[in-house]
Amino acid sequence: MPLLLAALARCPLRLLHVLGGLLGWLAWLLSGTYRQLHRENAALAAVPTAARRASIADAGRMVVELPRLWLRPRECPIADPVLWDGEGLVEQALSAGRGLVLLTPHLGSFEVAAQAYAQRFGHRQPITVLYRPARQQWLRELEETARARDHLATAPATLAGVRQLMRALKNGQTIGLLPDQVPPDGMGVWAPFFGRDAYTMTLAAKLVRQSGATLLAIWGERLPRGGGYRVQVLPMPHPLPDPAPAGDGAALADAQAINRSMEALIALHPAQYLWAYNRYKAPRDGVAGG
Fold first, then answer.
1. pLDDT at 190
2. Measured between alpha carbons, how far is 103 from 246 in angstroms, rounded to an integer?
């Protein structure tokens, strides 16, 4: 496996995206569970047929592009063109002198979003990204080394990782989370996502409210024909309620706002969303995270 990953890392992005498109369709054809999740989730969101089909190939591209992003030398910039749209919002947030929380759904290349931020803005304000460690030991070790780059730290989805995020915000730094990832039991609330209740993390909103950090959405669009990426930064389409609701309804109101914002982002480019992600599964027992 390491030799294959190393070989893929040296391939041009255009070739990787061709191979990834084939892999995406192969996975869709071979796995009935994958097909069912993809069809059900895309149907809930009323995704047009053309976008549904395109998303099958794009899921494979997400996998095959990872070696190129992970295995380049730590000090080297992203090998492919990275365009920015909305970087002024990041500039404003950094100038405010507070922490910054960036939310990225399973849309496009979320690996690129974090690395591109670190590459462009990390010297001013480093970023710490929450991630769920892989179950396979070899992949977990690869994640820990490949994702750690200059001005970019990683925090596992554990209590220690959550404390790491809190320290980063207290120090006026940036953190990144995937808010449409199913958190462990006790760390979320059931809130609508494309019309069906999904167990939704409460961590992101809690960190924003406790720290006073700025909250923005960010995602990395794959450009056609392996042309690189466009990192898009947007204000939250549905901001957290202000002032915060009192009582037990506060967490639900925040989760609803975040889910509605993620829906709006995904609607901009549904062909690059990971529709086969099991968003509506029941939470598992475990440590804190998202």
1. 97
2. 24
List Cβ<8 Å contacts ≥24 apart for 112-116: 112/69, 112/78, 112/82, 112/220, 112/229, 112/231, 113/176, 113/218, 113/219, 113/220, 113/231, 114/147, 114/152, 114/176, 115/69, 115/78, 115/149, 115/152, 116/78, 116/82, 116/84, 116/220, 116/229, 116/231
Per-residue confidence (pLDDT) for residue 186, from 0 to 100 = 86
- Domain 2-272 is found in CATH 3.40.1130: yes
DSSP state of 160: H
**Strand spans (E) along the chain:** 82-85, 100-103, 127-131, 152-156, 174-177, 188-193, 196-201, 214-222, 229-235
What is the spatial distance between Cα 258 and Cα 106, in angstroms, rounded to a whole number?
14
Phi, psi of 244 (to 5 degrees): -65, 135
What percentage of the chain exceeds 90 in pLDDT?
77
Cβ burial of 280 (10 Å; 0-12, 13-18, 19+) is middle
**∠ CA 188-155-10 to the nearest 5 degrees?**
120
Q: Three-state SS for 235?
A: strand
- What does the alpha-carbon distance between residue 228 and residue 249 come to, in Å, rounded to a whole number? 42
**Domain limits, the chain:** 2-272
User: Region 87-105: what's the mean pLDDT?
Assistant: 95
Measure Cα distances from 45 to 31, 59, 97, 252 in Å: 22, 17, 38, 21
**179 residue type, one letter:** P
DSSP assigned state of 134: -
Q: What is the pLDDT of residues 128-186, one digit of tens each?
A: 999 877 676 767 677 667 777 889 999 888 888 899 999 999 999 999 999 999 988 88
Q: 10 Å Cβ neighbour count for 105?
A: 24
